[in-house]
C-alpha cells in the first residue's frame, strides 16, 4: 500500500473499501493506519501528524498523497485547490461509450445522504476529461482526468449519461463488481513536491480484485 515517503509526504495505493478518514462507522481508515505505520516504523513518541489533503471515495482504489508536516499540508491543499495536481483515473462503465470529450455539470450532495445529484441551482461546477479505451459491447474502459475534484464526481457524471460505473449500484449499475467496491481506480497523480519543488508522479497498480478479463479490457495498443 505504501509507495514513497520522505520527511514531508507519504504516497500510497489506497485499497478499495478503506475509508480515507474516520467516520461514524468506526471502520478502519487511511489516516489512522498511516499514523500507526509511521509511529511504528520510526519509533515516534506521542502523536504523529498526518494531513489529509484530498480524498478517494470508500469503494474507490488508487493513488493518494498524505502530508507529514503542516507546511506540506498547506502547500499540497493549495495545489489541489488551484488544480495544479493532475488526477488520472481508469473506470469501467456499463454500456458502450465511444470517443472522447469533456463532461461539465453542477453537482450537489443531498443533505443527510451519501449521494450526489445534478443541480444547476445549488450544485458546484464539476468537470472532467474522458477518453474511451476499449469495449466488449457490454462494458467500456475509459481514461479520465479530473479537472475538479468533487465527491462522487466520476460516479455521478457517468451515471447521469447512462453509463454507471461497474459495481456502483448506488448510481444505477446493474452488475456487481466484487460485492462491495466499484471499478474505479486512480492510477496516477502528478504534482510538484511541496518543499523540494520538483515534479513527482505517483503510479498505483490495479487491485488484485480486478480480473484478467477486466484488465484485458483496459489494455490499449
Q: Could you explain the architecture of this structure?
A:
The structure is a single chain. This protein is α+β, with helices and mostly antiparallel strands and 221 residues long. Helices cover 18% and strands 34% of the residues. The longest helix is centred in the N-terminal third of the chain and has 12 residues, at 30-41.
Radius of gyration: 18 Å
Helix content: 10-25%
Helix count equals 4
Please report which band the strand proportion falls in: under 5%, 5-15%, 15-25%, 25-35%, 35-45% or over 45%. Answer: 25-35%
| pLDDT averaged over residues | 94
Distance between the termini: 28 Å
Largest sheet: 11 strands, mixed
Q: Uncertain segments of ≥5 residues (pLDDT<50)?
A: none
Label the overall shape: globular
Helix and strand content put the structural class at alpha+beta
Order of helices and strands: EEHEEHEEEEEHEEH
Say how many strands there are.
Answer: 11
Describe what is shown at a glance.
The chain has four helices and eleven strands. It has 221 residues and is α+β, with helices and mostly antiparallel strands.
Layout of helices and strands, plus pairs?
Elements: E1 2-5, E2 9-14, H1 30-41, E3 51-52, E4 61-67, H2 70-81, E5 86-94, E6 100-109, E7 116-118, E8 124-135, E9 139-146, H3 153-160, E10 184-192, E11 199-203, H4 212-218
Parallel strand pairs: 4-10
Antiparallel strand pairs: 1-2, 2-4, 3-4, 5-9, 5-10, 6-7, 6-8, 8-9, 10-11
What keywords describe this structure?
221 residues, alpha+beta, eleven-stranded mixed beta sheet
Amino acid at each position: 500500500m505504501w509507495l514513497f515517503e520522505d520527511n514531508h509526504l507519504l504516497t500510497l495505493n489506497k485499497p478499495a473499501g478503506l475509508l480515507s478518514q474516520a467516520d461514524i462507522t468506526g471502520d478502519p481508515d487511511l489516516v489512522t493506519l498511516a499514523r500507526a505505520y509511521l509511529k511504528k516504523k520510526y519509533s515516534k513518541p506521542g502523536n504523529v501528524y498526518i494531513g489529509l489533503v484530498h480524498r478517494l471515495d470508500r469503494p474507490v482504489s488508487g493513488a493518494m498523497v498524505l502530508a507529514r508536516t503542516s507546511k506540506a499540508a498547506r502547500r499540497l491543499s493549495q495545489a489541489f485547490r488551484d488544480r495544479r495536481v493532475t488526477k488520472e483515473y481508469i473506470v469501467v462503465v456499463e454500456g458502450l461509450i465511444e470517443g472522447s470529450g469533456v463532461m461539465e455539470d453542477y453537482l450537489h450532495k443531498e443533505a443527510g445522504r451519501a449521494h450526489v445529484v445534478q443541480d444547476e441551482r445549488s450544485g458546484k461546477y464539476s468537470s472532467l476529461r474522458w477518453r474511451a479505451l476499449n469495449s466488449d459491447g457490454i462494458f467500456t474502459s475509459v481514461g479520465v482526468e479530473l479537472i475538479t475534484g468533487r465527491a462522487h464526481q466520476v460516479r455521478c457524471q457517468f451515471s447521469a449519461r447512462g453509463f454507471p460505473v461497474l459495481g456502483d449500484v448506488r448510481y444505477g449499475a446493474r452488475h456487481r463488481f466484487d460485492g462491495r467496491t466499484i471499478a474505479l481506480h486512480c492510477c496516477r497523480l502528478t504534482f510538484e513536491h511541496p518543499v523540494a519543488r520538483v515534479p513527482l508522479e505517483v503510479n498505483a497498480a490495479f487491485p488484485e480484485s480486478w480480473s484478467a478479463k477486466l484488465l484485458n479490457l483496459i489494455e490499449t495498443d
